[in-house]
Structure formats: structure tokens, C-alpha cells
Amino acid sequence: MIGGEAYAQQAPDPGASLGAPVTLARSASFDIDAPGGAMRVLVSWPETPPPAEGYGVIYAMDASWSFGTLRDVMARHDVVAPAGVVPSVIVAIGWPTPDLVDMVRRGRDLVGKDATGPGFASTLALLTDTVLPRVEAALPVDPRRRMVLGHSYGGAFALRAGFVRSDLFSHVAAGSPSIWTDPDWFLDPQRAVPGQKILIALGALEYADAAGAAGTSPERVARLRKRDMAGRAERVAKMLDAQLVVFDGAGHGSSLLPFLDRAAKFLGE
């Protein structure tokens, strides 16, 4: 047996001997043209028939890190049917790469300023003017249960999209949002939208002192302190009267999984 880098360099594609690629039931994908290049959309819908008012729907940024987990979360809820969870369509937006992420375009498309090229506004227009109408023409959706969701840069996108298009999004779920990318904009008190439901989630180890005590590298702690990840998120949550959830023992990356599970429940609230 060989392992690690040697295996990656010498071994043939294991898919050639293991079988055909996996195809997910009740799912579809399509690409759409955008000013900064094509983006890929993945859609999954419940096995259960829609309620009379329609399915809930979650528009999730960063398909690579949101689609599979949200799909599994909602499939589990379809079986277990916990109180308050509504059957929901998952619509995840990413990039047309093998793993659905483009680290060069990700920051630009989610938090970039359109004055310097395609950025947040272009991506939001793509979501609201192209993706949303196409999905909701094909599947019955309850506009009272329409969420925009994201984590990190995607969390900043979700918050900003919720402010800008509060007429479309009844729910906003922002995990570890990168408020540091434009703190003055996010902390403007005029952003509050009466009646909009907002969830902000953090990992407990996004607090610099807690991260340091847990043995996080000094470089990472210094970055958390400089960006004031947790402090700014707390201030935005207070300003918006949003739900703030902190996951014990989780950092920026590891808070993603519990955040997605919590967001699925939040859509039913």
C-alpha cells in the first residue's frame, strides 16, 4: 500500500474501478452567466408533498460548503419531522469547478465592491433576478419562508442581501459573518428592518481570548482580535434584535455544521 502524496501521484482515478458517479435524487443543477464568469446553481427539493402554502426555501451561498450538508439536514428532518421544521427547497450558489468553489472569485463575488468590477451587487442581482424566478417557477415556494444564508464571506453576503432586499427575504441566517470587510456599513443603525427574522451564529473560539486559551496559533488569535469577529457580530445582532447563537468549542470553520442545522430550524420560526 502507498499513501499520502505518493498515492496521489501514482494511483489511477479510483472512480474508474469503483463505479459510476453518485447521482442525487430530487436534485438538479444549472449554470448561469454572470459579469465575473459563470456560476453554478444546485437545487434539491423534499420527497414530501408541499404544504398548501408551499415549501420553505433556503438560498445558500458557497455551494461547496452548504449544499450537501443542508440537503442531508433537511432530508433527516423530513424523516424525523421535528416540530417547527418546514419541508424546504435548498438552492445553493457556487462556481463551476469540480468542488463548486473558486477561491479567487469567492471574496470578490460575495463581498467585493462593484465599483471595481463584479461584486456583491452583481451576485445579488443574479440571485434575485435570475435564480429565484427560475426556481420558484418550477417549485411551489412560500415567500413567508424564504431565507438567504451564508457562512463567513457568505454570511456577510446574506446579511447585506437581507438588508438590501428585505422585500424578498423573510429570514436571514449568517454564520460567522465577515463584518470586518465593511464594518461601517454593517454597523449603521439604519440597516434594521422591522419584522425581519435574523439569525447570527458564531463559534465560541472566534472570541480572541477564548481562542488563545484553547491553544490557537498566535497569528490566528491576532487576526481574530484585529477583525473583531465576535464583537462586531454581537453588536450587529443587538442592533438588529437578531438571534445570536454561540457554539461551544467551535471555531470559524467548525461552526459551519451546527450553524446549518440551526438555520434549517430557524426557517420554521
From TrEMBL:
Belongs to the esterase D family. Keywords: Hydrolase. It comes from Thioclava marina. InterPro entries: AB_hydrolase_fold, Esterase-like, Siderophore_Hydrolase_D. Gene3D superfamilies: alpha/beta hydrolase (3.40.50.1820). This is Esterase. PANTHER family: SIDEROPHORE TRIACETYLFUSARININE C ESTERASE (PTHR40841), SIDEROPHORE-DEGRADING ESTERASE (EUROFUNG) (PTHR40841:SF2). It holds the Pfam family Esterase. Signal peptide: none annotated.
